[in-house]
Amino acid sequence: MALNAEKIKGIAFDAYGTLFDIASIDFLLEQIFDDRARQIAAQWRRKQLEYTWLRTLMGQYKDFYELTRDALYYALEATNTSADEAQVRELMQQYYHLDVYPEVRNALARLRGTYRLAILSNANPSLLERAVAYNGLDEWLDEIISADQIRQYKPVPGIYQLAEKELGLPAENLLFASSNTWDVAGATAYGLQTAWVQRRRSVMERLDVKPAVTAANLEELADMLLT
C-alpha cells in the first residue's frame, strides 16, 4: 500500500523504540551488572515482548509495568544473576525516565500544526504519562492511548481500532509509525497507513503486508509528510 499523504489527518506513534530509547536503561544496567548487562538487556526485552503476546493469547492480562518486571526477573534468572529488590525497583523506575531519540521533539513540533498526534502503546497509562512529562512532550500530543484500555496487547486489531476511536478519525485518515516490524505489520493488516521507522538494521516481517513508507527517523518522516 503506497502512502496517501493527502488523506492523513492524524498520526499515532508507538512509544518504545520509536519515541523513547530503551537503550537509555543500559547505563544503569552496566553500573549494576557490569559485563552481564548486555545479556540481561537482550533477555529482558525479548521476554517482555513474548509476555505481551502470550498473555493476550492466554487471556491472562497483566499491566505492562508488572509484565515488564516479570520479564526482568526472568532475564536475571536466565543469566544466573542475583539482584535485590532495591536494584529491581531502580531499574523499573527508569521506565519513567527514558530518553527520547534526538530528533523527536523537533519532529513532533513540526507535525503538530498539521496533524492530530497521539501515542499508541502497549504500556499502561502511568508509564506513558510520566515518560511524556519527563521529556516535555505534552504540548505536542493530543492523546495518549494505551492497550490497558482493552486489556490486550498488540498486534490484536482492537489496539489499532483505539486510534480511530480516540482521535476521532477513520483508518484511512490515520498514519501509524513504529520502529517495530511486527507492530507495523499489525497496524497495516488492520487497515491503517503505516510508516516503518527503521532505526536499526532489520528486515520487514514476511506477513504479506508492507508499510506505506520507510523512514530512518521521525525527522525524515516529517520531511516526507510536509514536503
The unreliable regions are none
| Class by SSE composition | alpha/beta
Please tell me how large the radius of gyration is: 17 Å
Q: How many DSSP helices?
A: 9
Please tell me the overall pLDDT: 96
Query: Beta-strand level of the residues, as a percent range?
Result: 5-15%
What do these coordinates show?
The protein has 227 residues and is an alpha/beta fold. The chain has two domains: 5-19 and 101-226, Rossmann fold; 22-97, DNA polymerase, domain 1. The protein is 46% helix and 14% strand. The chain has nine helices and eight strands. The protein has helices at residues 26-33, 37-58, 64-78, 85-93, 104-112, 125-135, 157-167, 181-190, 218-226; strands at 10-13, 20-21, 99-100, 116-121, 143-146, 174-178, 193-197, 213-215. The strands form two sheets. The protein has a six-stranded parallel β-sheet, sandwiched between helices. The protein has a two-stranded antiparallel ribbon with strand order 2-3. α1 crosses α2 (37-58) and α5 runs parallel beside α9 (218-226). The radius of gyration is 17 Å and the shape is globular. The two termini are 20 Å apart.
